[in-house]
Amino acid sequence: MTEKDAVIIGAGSGGLSALRQIKNATDNYLMIDPGPLGTKCARVGCMPSKALIKAANDFHRRHKFQSEGISGAESLSIDPDSVMEYVRGMRDKFAGNMEKVTRKLAGDNLIEAKAKILAPDMVEAGGERIKTKSIVIATGASPLIPSPWREFGERILTSETIFEQKHIPKKIAVIGLGVIGLELGQALSRIGTEVVGFDMKETLGGLTDESVKKRAIEAVGSDFPIHLGEAARLSSTKDCKITVCYGDHCDCYDAVLAAMGVSPNIEGLGLENLGVELNDRGLPNFNPKTAQISDLPVYIAGDVNGCRPILHEALDEGFIAGKNAAAGQDDCFCRRVPLRIVFSDPQIAAVGYMREELETTGREFVVGREDFSGQARAALEQNNKGLLHIYADNQTARFLGAEMAIPGAEHIAHQLAVAAQNQMTVFEMLQSPFYHPVLEEGLRSALRNAASKLKDKHTQPELLVCGSCPESPLC
Predict the structure, then answer these.
(1) What's the pLDDT tens digit per position in 73-96?
(2) 3-class secondary structure per residue, the chain
(3) In terms of Cα–Cα distance, which of 322, 352, 347, 326 is closest to 420?
(4) CA 337-341-347 angle, 5° bins
(5) Is the peptide bond before 297 cis (omega within 30 degrees of 0)?
(6) Closest by Cα among 353, 359, 366, 362 to 454
């Protein structure tokens, strides 16, 4: 029997993050993963989807050429199958690089096999039993496919199979309009696939602010039809590969892209052998600030924990799990401000508290608003659409959060995340520099709008008064 200080189950982003911390403390570790190596983000997630989105948006931009005095757009064409070949090529580069990183980090301490937990201090893999002082579970998650849908076989596509299609189906129903469904649905529509979107929730991209959500639906709805608020039903007939019904209306499709979330990869993992209670998803409770399961020397990180399946969250959770697994203690770590981005057009983002959360808790807040249909830089880019809402505490003026469906949301959201992380007030944020002409001027307008609603309680100039200046004058 082999004895180790730590065993990491899963070589994805969370597992690799944990490994980096464990390696700082010991060389006596083991990483176990059945493969393929290369992380979910590189193989089937963030990177191939962004390659597809880039190609789709490049082709879509041809509609704006005529107004800019550029002729010949009518002769442009696109081959969806060639686009997917390009995407696979980019994917293979990213995944190949991450596989090299994984093998280099793990060294000879990598077992490419499926692991099973036998006890809080015992793991089995590749026919071998390993006794260990600590375990990090980072097995990731896979796209959720309802059991009845499995009878449709290859006609049900997911984010893990769509990029492998040598021939893109002509007509696709996208069921689930969160991050994956919205990004892939819009991109597929823009490269020539007939797409119809469905979501049983009355939302798009996870937005909870009704006004922002309405703008997002209007914008995305110009690319492909969207049906919200009722579950889609699937069936098949002799004349139709797959029938999707919504309400009283049914239509025939070549395939369905299932984008209804993910299911933790825990089958056969042996979580029942930890001796702790499992919830209705088959997962143990854990402390998100320590990553620890109960009082065991077992830690959980990344998509497998069923919390927020986002790469930067997996990296942080892996850091926490690895630190504590290596140290044999349970240090508590602060989590970063929530940051969510959908790379659609317009981009959708949320930072900090969302409107629904604030309203549910009864917190008093004001809303700063900026309509990007009139934003100068967005108009120059012929992409002036969408709405930004920021939320500020009514008493303290502290920035609480934001929801947006606007061009350049990925950059503005990062700026807002820094402000939230540093607990800045609206007035302190207004003292930051804003260049011209940039999209960020729209953020300043939203901040000014919020400040105008707080003026009875707060008075603070946008420029710092002399005596508190951080820098010497420029001239």
Answers:
(1) 999 999 999 999 999 999 999 999
(2) CEEECEEEECCCHHHHHHHHHHHCCCCCEEEECCCCCCCHHHHHCHHHHHHHHHHHHHHHHHHHCHHHCCCCHHHCCCCHHHHHHHHHHHHHHHHHHHHHHHHHHHCCCEECCCEEEEECCEEEECCEEEEECCEEECCCEEECCCHHHHHHHHHEECCCCHHHCCCCCCEEEEECCCHHHHHHHHHHHHCCCEEEEEECCCCCCCCCCHHHHHHHHHHHHCCCCEEECCCCEEEEECCEEEEEEECCEEEEECEEEECCCEEECCCCCCHHHHCCCECCCCCECECCCCCEECCCCEEECCHHHCCCCCHHHHHHHHHHHHHHHHHCCCCCCCCCCCEEEECCCCEEEEEECCHHHHHHHCCCEEEEEEEHHHCHHHHHCCCCCCEEEEEEECCCCEEEEEEEEECCHHHHHHHHHHHHHCCCEHHHHHCCCCCCCCCHHHHHHHHHHHHHCCCCCCCCCCCCCCCCCCCCCCC
(3) 352
(4) 140
(5) no
(6) 366
Predicted local confidence at residue 455, as pLDDT: 72
Closest listed residue to residue 341, CA positions, set 112, 178, 159, 200: 178
CB 365 within 8 A of CB 394: yes
pLDDT digits (tens, 9 = 90+) for 1-49: 899 999 999 999 999 999 999 999 999 999 999 999 999 899 999 999 9
Q: How far apart are the two ends of the chain, measured CA to CA in Å?
A: 72
Cα(40)–Cα(182) distance, integer angstroms? 19
With beta carbons less than 8 A apart as the criterion, state whether 351 and 434 touch.
no
Question: Could you tell me the pTM of the whole model?
Answer: 0.94
Calpha distance 260→176 (Å, rounded): 5
Q: What angle do CA 204, 205, 206 make, to 5 degrees?
A: 90
Q: Which residues contact 26 (CB under 8 A, 6 or more apart)?
A: 5, 6, 326
